[in-house]
Amino acid sequence: MLTVTNLCCSYGQEEVVSGFSGEFHSGRITAIVGPNGAGKTTLLKGIGNLLSVRGTVSLYSENLLKIPRIQMARRVAYLSQFEAHNFDFTVEEMLYMGRYPHSVGASKDIRSSEIVLETLNDFDLYAMKDKYFSELSGGQKQRVLLARALVQEPKVLLLDEPTNHLDLKYQLELLGLVKKVAIERGIIVLAVLHDLNLALNFADEVLLMKSGRQIIKGSAPTLLEENHLAHTYDYDIPTYMKQSLAVWQC
Q1: How far is it between the farthest Cα atoms of the chain?
Q2: Terminal-residue alpha carbon distance, the chain
Q3: Which residues of 200-239 are buried (b: 16+ CB within 10 A; e: fewer)?
Q4: Cβ-count burial of 28 within 10 angstroms (0-12 exposed, 13-18 middle, 19+ buried)?
Q5: Which InterPro entries does this entry report, sorted A to Z (predicted)?
């Protein structure tokens, strides 16, 4: 279990997330949703100890904010919304990079070879393992980046808008993979998502945020109770969704 206690996250002197506390469980996906500027990405980075934070982030009673960075990378994998690549590598080489925290380099030790091969097959990437990353489509690139994060063998996977810029087919495929892997490997997954339909369909629970604070955390039905969405987004989201569904039913 991942336990976050009174977490405050700042950029310089500006505190963006204030006093967040919550628990997250193995094999489950938590979608973090809310309007722009709600502090979703900041919370994710705070949990990953990627910016200035106060509070505690404990994984099975171990405070992740107090351990060396290399040990943190063996427990937590973070997939950023935007990734720039100045050099080109093959798909297989990209995955071996994810083994750095375990092998302290990209050397092909036995365990690394096993997990890379397993992940190439699980993600249907083996046939393109010798292709260069720049040759791939957007959906394929995102699948490779997710696979690279998972070869770290993390206990916690942090995803910042993993479906950004993907068409619907690739969005569904990618989140389907995330759900499958989370269950099979018992990984705690926290994912920032803007698409509420995806969040409600794929996540086991949803964390709704506004202005750096938690509004509510619970199942999809809980999120829809008492008009939490309308209050948070300052817009009648449920009514809009129902009207959209009616269009498809015509």
Answers
A1: 58
A2: 45
A3: bebbbbbbbbbebebbbbeeeeebbeeebbeebbeeebee
A4: middle
A5: AAA+_ATPase (IPR003593), ABC_transporter-like_ATP-bd (IPR003439), ABC_transporter-like_CS (IPR017871), P-loop_NTPase (IPR027417)
Q: Do 150 and 77 touch, CB atoms closer than 8 A?
A: yes
Contact 4, 56 (CB under 8 A): yes
**Which ranges in the chain are annotated with CATH 3.40.50.300?**
2-75+154-248
pTM listed for this prediction: 0.91
Question: What's the distance, CA 7 to chain centroid?
Answer: 18
| pLDDT tens by residue, 30-39 | 999 999 999 9
Cα gap 33→159, rounded to integer Å? 12
Alpha carbons within 13 A on the beta-carbon side of 187: 27
In tens, the pLDDT along 148-206 reads 999 999 999 999 999 888 888 889 989 999 999 999 999 999 999 999 889 988 999 99
Query: Is-contact 53 65, C-beta < 8 A?
Result: yes
Task: For residue 44, give both structure tokens.
Answer: 């994710």
Superfamily of domain 2-75+154-248: P-loop containing nucleotide triphosphate hydrolases (3.40.50.300)
Residue 12 has φ and ψ, to the nearest 5°, of: 65, -125
Contact (CB, 8 A) for 31 and 206: yes
Nearest-5° Cα angle at 171, 179 to 33: 75
How many C-beta atoms lie closer than 10 Å to residue 26's C-beta? 16
